Amino acid sequence: MLPREAGLLRRRCVRVANWGEASRPIEDLLDTWGTVAAHGIAAPQIGVLRRLFVYRPYDDDVDEKSEAAAPIAVVNPKVIKVAGELTDYDGCLSLPGIYGQTRRAERIEISAQLSPSETVRLKFEGYTARIIQHEMDHLDGVLWIDRLTDDDLDNLYTLAEAPAEGEPVDGGSAAPQSALKKTPLTDSDREFVAGARRPLPGFALHW
Known about the structure:
Low-confidence stretches: 1-5, 61-66
Distance between the termini: 32 Å
Oligomer: single chain
Strand content: 25-35%
């Protein structure tokens, strides 16, 4: 279920020297995007140790019929300032099927390149700020489990399909839809996460 080797995910990425160096990894990240369900993907997750990632802004108020925004490529991001703190959901393609909650800044401002010709300042808040911080962690070899305290390990979970219950859908003969249920980790997976984690110093857990 979990990868047994972190490999490149634990190495710090190198700054992108020029946009030509970024174009192929960005293309590969965008190609990968269509094959996974994610809010963002960082270059080291596809084996490229460069400081770039792609993400899509999160908006839980978007009309379900609206067309989803295209993913955005961010090159050489650098934190300018952060503010506030929120504890919320976290998970990662690199640790599939494992979820928990981490503390991250509520708001973040970064500088980054979104095109070959300019560096811009960008402000994010709420869950999109969380996405940005998660992807930037990847560029420094940090996984979300590194932000857990020992006590947090007890609250990790997987999502399992719960047996369908209730009345038939719309009063007809169709079976009721099943739902996903939070299930605590097995002892072996919990031990693996505990062993794979590289706890950040206490001051880094707070913004």
